[in-house]
Structures are given as structure tokens and as C-alpha cells.
Amino acid sequence: MSLEALKSALPDYAKDLRLNLSSLAMEEVLSRQQRAGTFVAAAIASRNAEVTRAVVGEFAAQLSPEALTAAKAAAAIMGMNNIYYRFSHLVGGEYATMPAKLRMTVIGRPGVEKVDFELWSLAVSAVNGCGMCMEAHEKVVREAGLSREQIQAGVRIAATVHAVAVALDGEAALAG
Asked: Would the CA dihedral through 54, 58, 59, 63 be positive or negative?
């Protein structure tokens, strides 16, 4: 499935999402790798097979094999970290000071530029709603030189991809 097919699958009430997908697919404040990887990581985080297939189908060719693997890894590792760190942040107490004791070596050696992996991790954290992780990754990408506009673009991609998944899941539930 392509991005065009995904846009066509959206109901009329989601016209804004269709338009946002089109404009974000051409977002110029991010590098090609940053944009494509953000789409892929956010799609995987959306947990919608149709969205994931369409987005990976559209953007995988814009990424090296290493970058595609890193975008997938960002979605996977943040799937774990967002749950753990959201728990320790919200519950607080001793949990916030205890070592996580979870392997996350991919964050230190993602196989792509660290700033790109961190941007993808930020996008996934936005989809998963982990404030602690969003703050940490936003700080890292800012220190690495990304502008607020670039960071916002990454989060706009994540928000739109997630919203497309929500709309399609809702339609599937109503049809079933």
C-alpha cells in the first residue's frame, strides 16, 4: 500500500489528515532521512498494520538499510522505555531513583546519526504520551542543533500518523 492509497482509505471527515499527510511528506525543515525515519517510527508506534505497511512502503526507499533498522529500533525501544519511564515518573517515590535494569544499548549505538535517532525517539514518545521521555529527547536534539521548527515538524508527523491510525481503527471497528 502507498501513502496515496492510505490517504484514499481515510473517510471524508478526516480530510484534514489527508492534507496533513501530503504536506508533511514534503516537509523541508527536516532532512530526507529525518523525515522518512520519523514517519516510519511513528507508524510502527501507531500499532496499525495498514498505516505501518503504507508508510514503510512509501518511505523505506528513502532510507539506507541501517536507517530503516534504526527507525524500527527507535519504535521498539521507546515502546519499552515509554512505559517504564512513564510509570516511574508518575508513581515517583523510590521508583524514580531505582536503576531501570533494562537493556537499551541501541540508544547509544543506533547505527545512524545520534540526532536522527533521538528525533525518532521523541516522535515515538509523543505518540506514546511519555512526558519524561519527550523532555529528555527534546533536550538532546536541541543540544545537537535541531531547531524548534525541526522538532515541531517531527512531532507534527507523529501526531498526524497517529491520527490516521485512530481514524482507520475507528472505521474498522464500526464496520466490523
From this structure: positive
Which stretch of DSSP H or E encloses residue 171?
A: helix 148-175
- List the catalytic residue out of 133, 140, 164, 167: 133
Q: Is 130 a catalytic residue?
A: yes
Compute the chain's Rg from CA coordinates: 16
Q: How much is the pLDDT for 102?
A: 92
Catalytic residue among 6, 78, 130, 155: 130
> Total structural domains in the chain?
1
Average confidence (pLDDT) per 10 residues, the chain, 176 residues = 92 97 97 98 97 98 98 97 95 91 92 97 98 96 98 98 98 91
Residue 105, domain CATH:
1.20.1290.10
Neighbouring residues of 57: CB distance < 8 A, sequence distance ≥ 6: 1, 2, 3
Q: Is 157 tagged catalytic?
A: no
Q: Which domain holds residue 130?
A: 3-175
Beta strand segments in the chain, E = none
